[in-house]
């Protein structure tokens, strides 16, 4: 799966979990850019992304994500 | 601690004091819950206990019945399949079906059964383990 495909699916997860329709994630997007993305939402987002892509992140990996792009890079790496 | 597949069971009494306490605190006096004739006219055996009493029992289960008190409820969903009446004894059966060690999350599937072993409610509850 390409990075763009992963980003598109992650975007869908954000739409679903955060219940906001007009969201367009970019590589640099962080929680500071999205009002609904708080600590509880973050847990829900990570859990749903793990389910959707059938991957598991470690705590260190999760804490290391600087932005959406970093997370998608990690997903691409796990799927390779 | 609290591993995938771990099961729990706890019995609760839907007593007069539970019912009156819920009424006193939340003041939901809809006739379905307070008027015998109204409830029977709607097809129920008697006044129906508030469904959210079961959510109160869930709160007790999470807060007081697990091996740790370091817990917080994230979210829960419940479907009410059958009415619950005064005097019913409901048994909660809960099983951990999702674990995220990285996020400190546990999710339970649960069912409530009445004393006739009829399923009265089902749902899912997700908690976080506090550091």
Instruction: Spell out the helices and strands of chain A N to C.
Output: HHHH
- How much is the average pLDDT of chain A? 95
One letter per element, helices H and strands E, the order of chain B comes to EHHHHEEEE
Mean pLDDT of chain B: 97
Radius of gyration of chain A: 11 Å
Q: Which protein chains are joined by the largest interface, and how many residues does each one contribute?
A: A-B, 12 and 9 residues
- Determine Rg of chain B (CA atoms, Å): 16 Å
Terminal residue distance of chain A: 8 Å
What order do the strands of the largest sheet of chain B run in, or round the barrel if closed?
1-3-4-5-2
Percent of sequence in beta strands of chain B: 35-45%
Which secondary-structure class do the elements of chain A indicate? mainly alpha
Envelope shape of chain A: globular
Number of strands of chain A: 0
Summing up helix and strand content along with how strands pair, one would put the structural category of chain B as alpha+beta
User: What portion of residues of chain B is helical?
Assistant: 25-40%
DSSP E strands of chain B, number: 5
Outline type of chain B: elongated
Largest sheet of chain A: none
Could you tell me how far the N terminus lies from the C terminus of chain B, measured between alpha carbons in angstroms? 14 Å
Question: Your description of this structure?
Answer:
The complex is a heterodimer of chains A (80) and B (131). Chain A has 80 residues and is mainly alpha-helical. Helix content of chain A is 61%, strand content 0%. Chain A is globular and about 30 Å long. By secondary structure, chain B is α+β, with helices and mostly antiparallel strands. Chain B contains 4 helices and 5 strands; from the N terminus they run E-H-H-H-H-E-E-E-E. The mean pLDDT of chain B is 97. Chains A and B meet through helix 2 and helix 3 of A and loops of B.
